[in-house]
Write a structure and sequence with these properties.
With 704 residues, the protein is of the alpha+beta class. The protein is built from 25 helices and 22 strands. The strands form seven sheets. It has a five-stranded mixed beta sheet with strand order 1-3-2-4-5, with helices on both faces. Strands 13, 14, 15 and 16 form a four-stranded antiparallel beta sheet that branches. A four-stranded mixed beta sheet has the order 20-19-21-22. The model has no long low-confidence stretch (mean pLDDT 93).
Length: 704
Amino acid sequence: MAERLKNQASAYLRQHAGNPVDWWPFGDAAFDEARRRDVPVFISIGYAACHWCHVMAHESFEDPEIADFLNEHFVSIKVDREERPDVDSAYMAATQALTGQGGWPMSVFALPDGRTYYAGTYFPPQQLQGTPSFRQVLEAVSSAWRDRRPDVEQSAAQIAEHLASGQLANARLLGTIDGAGLPDTAEHAEAAARALSSAVEVLEGAEDTDFGGFGGAPKFPPSPLLRFLLAHSGSGAPTAPAAAGLAARTLTAMALGALFDQVEGGFARYTVDRRWQVPHFEKMLYDNAQLLRVYAQWARSAEDPDHRALALRVTRETAHWLDLRLRLPGGAYASSLDADTQVDGSRVEGATYVFTRAELTAALGAGNPALDLLDTDADDGASHRLPGSTLRLAAVPDEAQARSWEHARQVLAKVRSSRPQPDRDEKVVAGWNGLAVAGLADAAAVLADNGVPEPRILESAQAAAEYLLAVHRKDGILYRVSNHGSAQGIEGLMEDYAGVAEGLFALYAVTGEPRWHTEAQALVAAAAERFLASGALSDTAAQSAQVRHAQGGTSSASPLDDAVPSGTALFAGVLLTSASYGGPARHRALAEQLLFHVLRAAPAAPQAVGWAMSVQQALIDGPRELAVTGSDPDAVAALLAAGRSAGGPSLVIAHGRPEGVPLLEGRNTEVPALAYVCRGMACKQPVSTAEELRAQLRPEAPAG
């Protein structure tokens, strides 16, 4: 019945191609069919790695009776939230407005014009603890459409009006964007610095002081927020030490816990508990791309040698895991690994990853010192119905313990490789791959040997970048997804253009190859043209008519982070980087305007604007720019290593051939090596030694 899904780019949609439900992909054709038949639309939203999406699919969408009812009374649409975050965002807002909560699978019932009139998440096959069965829901919403059409229309209008108010609130928060810039006054700089310091103080109050991180269960990695805390920790602000402590405690807790795969590397999506003990085992590219970069940055700033070694280990193993499990032919990275593993025909969550104590002892040998490194106290794997224990380290290992665990994890990796492995969603998402390029580039730099970036990791970053430019870009348009080397579906969102530009700028900073700088600048210019219109910012260049109807006829870019940084924050960041390399001055002015909401949002809701705060921190810092030139490659590499170590994550780095890079033009290239530290293209006296460069890059206390 679901033939329309079998050739889709999304593995999630293809997973449903064999259902008896007559699924349609999201688009005008499906809504036109609903209008023709005069039936409502059922929109089911999920993603390939989602455990409960699989559960509902097996219980309901594979049930012939449920399918017959859906096919007779609805037009059914299947949506991959990763492929269409614009659709997911609109209907998630409707679901939260109706139920007070959201999640996946998401089940939405809409009019043929796209407006929602009923919504929920997972519905069981039988009524359960007050939750109606899916069949009961279907009968009720179908009956309402048939017998109480005016009530349905009124409900849909009210929900759309409510969502319109949220879009207008986003628009007010962002304000009018005209590229004229904000007044460059000391008063504004002081206000921004105070807002970021206030955010750190708020985060101190929100910290889980027992187990690290923020809030309770479930506990997610606060990746954009960690980027800000690391940037602020080197700022010289009075709250810099507090930011450093918050970052270090969270990064340590995540690295020791089961959120991080202690055997193979890579991070799970979240843990179901606040102790970081029991993960939800799906592994997402967007989490690992961000955390790879964060741990690479922490490895530069961690003062304690054992913590620095831990950060380097996580960086190395996460980069290795990306290549081992997510890298595709052609060099791009797949979207995710499933939470479940097929075992004897059944889906078992975590089956690939967990070990019983007997299995550990059999693999490593009784008395192996690595067993003493594991935290097995309060092991609640059994209470979560896992077929074994998650692996967690009890404390930061010293050098000898780290060697012991390195040997043990290689043994355990061989055991795990013989087990069934989780399915992989091979959909390539442009923006997430851009973040992966950035993470890999930074990882290659921090794992450098004598100033030479780690070649295997750098090659991976370059291959992914080549794929994005060759496959996802056509006639100046960047497409969001590809499958098996072919771009499909919608044009990239703002987060895709900005995410890829972020990756290319980071790759240029490591390689000095001017091509990456040129391509990044072109993407930033294209994004400014496509997502800014009449003083308003949009997340999409061409919004779906149905999504627009669902939102009450209004739309605005969201400035708030989710699992990935907001498109607004990413765009502000690459605009600022563009200007710092000598791009149009208008780009800096646009970045300033896109960050103006940080003054209000940072003290009120810092966890929602982490990436924007990191860009604001860079703006307060200048950002500082480092140009390194010279005729001696070893001397140049030594200055670059010193600059990366001392300059922090906000430092903009230029080196290599000056072709098309204004920050390098006119510099002295005859001497062995010179480093120029600049702010706004105004540079200090060039220096030739690492010690002098580190002195110039020492943080200064900001105004206020």
